[in-house]
Records
---
Amino acid sequence: MNAAIAHSEPLYASLPGDIGISFEFFPPKTEKMAETLWESVRTLEPLQPDFVSVTYGAGGSTRERTHAAVQRIVEETSIPAAAHLTCVDATREEVDAVARQYWDSGIRHIVALRGDSSDPSGKYRPHPGGYENAAALIEGLLKIAPFEISTAAYPEKHPDSHDEAADLDNLKRKIDAGATRAITQFFFEPECFFRFRDKAAAHGIGAEIVPGIMPIMSFASVQRMSGLCGTAIPAWLETLFEGLDERPAARQLVAATVAAELCRRLYAGDVRKFHFYTLNRAELSYAICHLLGRRPGDTA
């Protein structure tokens, strides 16, 4: 029924903005990047997101910058902020100390992840004395304080998982350990998310699964990231971005159109929450939310 309505009514005009939104940023490396990040936060703040999150480098390599960015969001905006935390290259005591620091700073939401290996070989090995995986991390965090916890899901299977069943088993362990929701890795076909959502439900996973949306700012960068995380790039997408390397304005228009249409089709499939990977740039995500009917001051 919803799909029929989506195809019969004017494009986007009927979408009421009844969506939950969240945005992901990464900690800035320079003062100029910090200015860009803060401009993006301020641009997106009027949309009243459910939360924004700030990523965490392997082995805590961005620990102080992550904490500073999250702390500033907490202190200077009205947006609930979440900090990413991983298991990589740290003992349980070190991870627990970071979590306590977050709680003491007023941060109540953590995105708990296993994290990517800092080993050049790419093979993940648990740190001796550290948390073995994300499920163990979630259990440990909830012993420290009653955090709200988000975790990761992979519609096309995590590259380290043996098969889809093993990947779903791992997601269920994270949810059973106490995660509130799962946020997916980015993908480009709506059917990819719908298939995954159905498989997760059949696997006994009842928690909220939020699609992660990646507006394409650089096709080369997306190709690189997709190769690392196992995301398929459909041929039609590559064709759309062909010839736009030297035309950033045209590329941005195409990127907004593609991501908004993906979201519209997800909405037609009863998705009401979206998580945007902003890469610290606000305009694409803002435009997509606008097309979905979300306006400043709106809440789902």
Note: The chain has a mean pLDDT of 89.
---
Amino acid sequence: MSARSLSGAPAAADGTLLIAERFGVEVPTFQGEGPSCGRPALFIRLSRCNLACARCDTKQTWDWSRYDPREVSTRETVEGLARWALSSPVELVVITGGEPLLQQQRLLPLVRELLAAGKRIEFETNGTITPIPELLVDGVRFNVSPKLASFGEDERRSIVAAVLAAFAAGGRAAFKFVASGPDDLGRIAELVEEHRLAEVWVMPEGTTAQAVTATLRAIADEIAARGWNLTPRLHTLAFENAAGR
């Protein structure tokens, strides 16, 4: 089975979503990246992605050369997910992946129920799929993370001008780039100018606290000089990528 063979939008019975994991209720955690970094958060990680980035840190959502999808994903109902999220007083619910917008039509009832209960939603998306209009509502934000060639994906697949334009025009997005080092910052600047991106965040790549800290120190001065926002990988610094944190 190839890495991409099941990477597209999954077929599902009505009322269910294909989930890799959910966490933050039983053991509290934080949003580790972007504008809400440091805020208590619940996470719903959807399975499947339309990209196959070599440096992806959630390959269990799409890489079937390494993982058995029957072992690393389950189907859960909207009702069950809502009940789980609403059992916690934490306001912020992060819907991530994989690429969650592959299942956005099926996510809509969940988003509406959570918003009605006073929750706030952040989608973590790779910026290749335009959100449906019904998701562009108060209480929903998008952390859009276009993937650079240095992240191990062909930019002809990972940089979609029309989608970035839609997010930029919608006023509900922050643009979060992963930088593996100072050499990536010039490419980020080109994309920011070409696609007129505002509210730009840059995050150091790394899966250990030592690697994140080293990269953060290497890029911080130039990010400040460019007037961008700097975000750590707080979950890596705090928990070293422990499962469910």
Note: Residues 1-7 have pLDDT under 50 and may be disordered.
---
Amino acid sequence: MAISAKLLGEDEYVVVSTRTHWKALLGPIFLLLVVAAAGGFLAAIIPAGSFRTPGRIAILAVGVVILVAFALKPFLNWYFSTYTVTNRRLITRHGIFTRTGRDIPLMRINDVSYEHGLIDRMLGCGTLHIESAGERGQVDLPDVPHVEHLHLQMSDLLFGGPEGRPGDGILADEEPPEHMRRRPDPQPQPQLPDPEGSTIFSSDDER
């Protein structure tokens, strides 16, 4: 499920990798049960005779075609579609035979939000909204499992989190602003000898 390590850059690692929520499979599973029940019923009521065997074969063939077209394809779409977040970018991959993908650098993401209705909260999923500074603007990731957890992790990466990567809205590759840079400690002023033999102390020593 995770993206191949060959596709990751130097010092890049996967933070989260997931597929869409299993609720996308509810329709195919329901269709499978209906087709199996209907096919079994029709096969059972075919009267005995020379037509029974060809009739059952025809029912089986129709059932397989329906399942391949309306159940297998959604399952494969779910299986081969992934959302991956690394410490540098958001990666989406979709498609069975023709693969499509999009990579969004974290430094171009301006805002991350999520929403989930009552059913989504019951199932533990939601839609993640990504605002990026690009031509396409907003990207919506539907049916994300544990969307609140993913939102929290992306917020940590973008706007401050553990391991000292970003902090206060600064990514690891960016230089902090002037007011956040550590200023060097002032050098102590040298002590000057008194021409008459005594020692003249600096103003810091007098304080």
Note: The mean pLDDT is 78.
---
Amino acid sequence: MTRRSAPPPHPVVRTVHGAVRGERRATGVRFLGVPYALPPVGALRFAAPVPPEPWRGTRDATAYGPTAQRRAFSEVTTIPEPTVPGPDILNLNVFTPDPSPGAGLPVLVWIHGGGFVAGSAASPWYDGAAFNRDGVVVVTVGYRLGVEGFLSLPDAPDNRGVRDWVAALEWVRDNIGAFGGDPAKVTVAGQSAGGGAVLTLMATPSARGLFRAGICASGAVMRPQGRDVAHAVRRLFAARTGVPATAAALRDLTDTGLLAHQDRLNAPGPDRTALPMMALAPFADGELVPEPVPDVLVRGDAGADVPLLLGCTAHEFHGIPQPDATPEGLRVMLAAHGLDEARIRRFLDTYGGHDGGPGELLNQAVTDITFRFPAVAVAEARARRGQPTWLYEFRWPSAAPVFAGLAHHCADLPFAFDLLDAEGVTPVLGAHPPQHLADAVHGAWVAFVRDLDPGPDWPRHTNRDRSTRIWDATPRTESDPLRPLRAIWSPLLPGPAASDRH
């Protein structure tokens, strides 16, 4: 009897730029810190991404590469977000069940969140182990953040972070087959800013054909996002920092110096109130991103043939202290976002039974405006045109003391990645998050990536029954469970008269 030799602990795969050596694990092989573009330093700091130079020999890919994040979003973050120093930040990580050319496995490309100014592809919450176990290749992508990625500069290409996403997807197209993936079966996915990245890519012509489906979890797309807004941000940057908002003036600044200028731009003040909450974010530059993403999505022009799974958590931004909130300030905020007095009363009647007072209601309004209502608006618009769309709301309440009773921002990710035992999960979800819910959420994502359909228990969202998947202790599909939300915000939905939307 012939004994089979054990598989090598460090398999080697050849990319179009050179060979990389990975690390075998129980669920497959991971290749970390693989460059998809040259380091954006010196003359390339604010340039479009440039493909890597070919290398000789075999490059070690057993440790995470440098991150664009030089400082975490805050002192304590929900998701563990490691910062790895170094200039070669335009890298990605590949987790594959089978690094064999021709395996033809479906691929999930993950774009991390972090408000477009922070976040890390090296987070343990984005490990691809469970997806590998279930036959899916995972690619996690690093990209330029903040000023380097998104500040409009007259002497540099706009939307450099978006260009990084496109370059990473082009790398996947050209290389993923060598890692066992099928370049024709790519789903691009992300959460928060990463979910906004998915929607932006759907409205970016140069990204068409690089992915066949999208998953947008709590996607954040800023409004308004025209060139006039980007130019206003540029002027504010120069006024607040005293430094010209040009690549020539910023190229040689240290990371610390550039972050200090970024902090000055983002500080509150009367000259900041007219700008979006996230001033450094993708915008419609008229070229790479031809039109504002929300406009294109609700018109149905973007990604008409791209299946889209999207949704959010029920309490995205709840739990944030709002000590200065007042009933009068809440009314002003709601009116500024388009609600007349009748709709304001409906908002207060719908949510006013809680005990948190105006602060909790303010957080509810921010959750609705930033996440829940935009997801419904996109689903409604796509459903009207028969475009394949699946909508969900994650409602399972955390048992962790700091988030007790809330289905908060990021809480769904350990379930989607089936990583309930990952670092940092217990302080966020509590000691015993339900494995059966992770099985259900993760299983639906796997089915969608593999089959372009999350399964028979989750029908498409249509304007007839508005089927919506509810992720809770008992996962279920309900007909039109977000009707109260739509009833409040429906004047802002494009298309048919409000009477047709209820």
Note: The chain has 15 helices and 14 strands.
